[in-house]
Amino acid sequence: MTALFALAPLVLLLVGGLLIMLVDAFAKERVEVSALVSTLLGASFVVAAGSLLADPNPSGLPAEITRYLAVDATGYFTDVVLTVAALIATLAAGSYLREHELERPEIYLLLLLSTFGAMVLARAADLIVLFIGLETMSLAVYGMIAMRRNNARSIEAATKYFLLGSFAAAIFLFGAALLYGATGGTSIAAIRDAIRGGHAEPALVMLGLVFTLAGFAFKVAAAPFHGWAPDAYEGAMIPVTGFMSVVVKAAAFASLLRVFTGVFGDPLLMHPTTGWPTLVAALALLSMLVGNLGALGQKNIKRILAFSGIAHAGYVLVGFASLHAVPEDATAAILYYFLAYAGGTGLALASLVAFGSKGLEAVDVDDLVGLGKRHPLLALPMAIAMLSLLGIPPTAGFFAKLFLFQAAAQAGGIFAWLALAGVALSVVSGFYYLRIVVALYASEPAEGAVVARPMRSGYVLLAMVFGSALVVKLGVMPGLYLDLALEAGRGLFH
Questions:
Q1: Cα(331)–Cα(47) distance, rounded to whole angstroms?
Q2: At 132, is the pLDDT very low, low, confident or very high (cuts 50, 70, 90)?
Q3: How far apart are CA 152 and CA 149, in angstroms?
Q4: pTM of the model
Q5: Closest CA to 312 of 241, 220, 395, 234
Q6: Cα-Cα-Cα-Cα dihedral of 290, 293, 298, 301, to 10°?
């Protein structure tokens, strides 16, 4: 397999971004940019999925590439997740921007570049490349949030996210510098070999990993590094909220998984006595608490999903905390969770796009009151998304949480108690998820209240059908996708 084809999912997006710039500059007639971007993302998805099934771990690639970018099953699986999330966001954006008279080709360019950066981040085998991917992804997201230049809330959200993101990047760089100083290398393999060979100062390595973890925790909105998320989600356009809630989180977690399994890739280094499993468990518990309790008092659906995202970051960290005991099972559960979360969250925000028309966004729970009675089929995908995010069988979210909590239970000790806390806090999340379902189907709007007026657009309907099918299929056939995740993650340990 040639290097170009092995990295085709990334190359397609990079070339596609350049193509959009040329089309915008030279096209004399209006071009359907959203259709072009959807086609590019679909092609990237097909290539990534085909590579995952046919040749997930290609050999014979130049060392100049594999030293910096991992070309393996884990990378292809993550590419699938990222392209699925980006495709749903693009289809929703095609309807949203046209309906609200905000259509500009720049947002699609930024979306492609951000997805490209996310893929680089998830595949990075070197801390320098990792940082380049992280910032490519982040800078494009800042631009997408600020795209509504006349909206004060959007500008405020973008500014806050940019400033805090810059601070988080500095923290990450400090951690990377400590790792370089302790081991003399920036590649994950070099850091691992230095630690295993006894050529690194353990205390300095752990300090570097703590700062690196803090930088990642900001990107995934894990408590206590979550302060930016509610305002950024609320201020962004709905499709951008959907994109950043999945793509940024999944890419950062995938990169963190590669760093942790690469550096602590054997039982001795992964042992709880090193301290990091307990630290990750504390972050997981705090994130689940802050996310679920914070969402209870919210009425804005984007803020609800922001706090929900904090809680979901905590659930994923439960899997990270279990890596020392059941590395392959925990890795598979984490990868499966990425796909389930992409489907559920993407579907929820695509549904929000469909609920608003003619300049009126449906972003509050009260906006959805009675919508299920007036438009039962249109409201159904939102209900499916809420049930999946809550974890009700037979949706994808149920099995995603089940696999993560099983891994923690197998780890035993405090990690089994962490799984129990996750189950209890998932029950708490039912109060805010089911409140949306009740508003859709079991409530009537107050007299004179402004109610959602659904738009008529094929793009967003396609996104909703795609997201619904993904959530249901992952729930009905969990074993098939868990096996794929298990095979994808196994390469990290061999």
A1: 23
A2: very high
A3: 8
A4: 0.94
A5: 220
A6: 70
